[in-house]
């Protein structure tokens, strides 16, 4: 349970320093993890980014303070990290659906988010089918995008599917890893995400190439319609498999593999590849 304990420690750290200028480096260090993997794990387990969580918690506390005190809106805005009352009001409306003044006047309901608690249930009823593979480094060509977190990945897939890019990539797949890949790599600005295919040869126009390093891989079968089957598999890996296995994350590139199966079919087959040690 060490990994989950570290994650809960990081959440406790966020709560203790919620009114300070938190950095992802500080939070990940408390969680004994890299920034890349802490953000990935947090997002997969909670369905929101670390920054989303911090913002929601701050706006929850701000609303409660407006309800119970006579503090000025401008002072509350500054206290919870907003440089202007206008920016505070815009964010406040987005979460609560009403203005700070309306909360002060008790004219509406607020939407509150409370501190997260990581709970784990280890179950043996539903099996997780996986195998451990050794694989040399290989090259992937595709569209390379730098992101702060996971939140833009779904929109990127939709865009590249709609404009025919993924169909073009599928025709280039001449490597020994067969299928469309969603590769996630650590990056100084957050994550580097690649939608591409394993490929050997000159880099085609409009695409870039990245190298996936040699690794020991835990390869998980994913059966079911997208995106729920993939989301469920990731959550089970972090909640069930990692805490109970003898493996640890290696901290390098990880990827999802999508076959030619119908993504909306309940029998659709795909894979998750995680580098382990």
TrEMBL record:
Keyword presence, Amino-acid biosynthesis: no
Family annotation (PROSITE patterns) = HTH_ARAC_FAMILY_1 (PS00041), HTH_ARAC_FAMILY_2 (PS01124)
Domain of life, source organism: Bacteria
Which Pfam families does the record associate with it? GyrI-like, HTH_18
Q: Which Gene3D superfamilies match?
A: Homeodomain-like, Regulatory factor, effector binding domain
The record's section on InterPro entries has:
AraC_E-bd, GyrI-like, Homeodomain-like_sf, HTH_AraC, HTH_AraC-typ_CS, MarA-like, Reg_factor_effector_dom_sf
Q: Mind listing the UniProt keywords for this protein, alphabetically?
A: DNA-binding, Transcription, Transcription regulation
Stretches assigned to the HTH araC/xylS-type domain: 8-106
Cited PANTHER family: RIGHT ORIGIN-BINDING PROTEIN
Entry protein name: AraC family transcriptional regulator
The organism is Lysinibacillus piscis
């Amino acid at each position: 349970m060490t990994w989950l304990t570290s994650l809960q420690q990081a959440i406790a750290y966020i709560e203790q320093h919620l009114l300070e200028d938190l950095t992802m480096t500080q939070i990940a260090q408390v969680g004994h993890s890299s920034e890349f993997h802490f953000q990935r794990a947090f997002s997969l387990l909670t369905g929101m980014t670390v920054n989303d969580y911090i913002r929601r918690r701050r706006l929850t506390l701000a609303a409660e303070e407006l309800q119970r005190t006579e503090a000025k809106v401008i002072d509350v805005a500054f206290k919870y990290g907003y440089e202007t009352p206008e920016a505070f009001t815009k964010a406040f409306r987005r979460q609560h659906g009403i203005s700070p003044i309306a909360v002060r006047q008790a004219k509406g309901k607020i939407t509150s988010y409370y501190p997260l608690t990581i709970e784990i249930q280890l179950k043996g009823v539903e099996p997780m089918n996986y195998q451990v593979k050794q694989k040399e480094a290989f090259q992937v060509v595709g569209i390379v995008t730098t992101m702060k977190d996971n939140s833009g990945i779904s929109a990127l897939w939709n865009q590249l599917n709609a404009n025919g890019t993924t169909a073009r990539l599928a025709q280039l797949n001449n490597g020994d890893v067969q299928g469309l890949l969603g590769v996630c790599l650590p990056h100084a600005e957050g994550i580097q995400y690649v939608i591409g295919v394993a490929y050997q040869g000159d880099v085609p126009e409009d695409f870039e190439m990245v190298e996936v390093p040699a690794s020991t891989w835990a390869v998980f079968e994913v059966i079911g319609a997208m995106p729920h089957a993939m989301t469920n598999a990731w959550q089970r890996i972090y909640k069930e498999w990692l805490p109970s296995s003898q493996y640890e994350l290696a901290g390098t590139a990880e990827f999802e593999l999508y076959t030619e199966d119908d993504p909306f079919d309940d029998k659709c087959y795909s894979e998750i590849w995680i580098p382990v040690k």
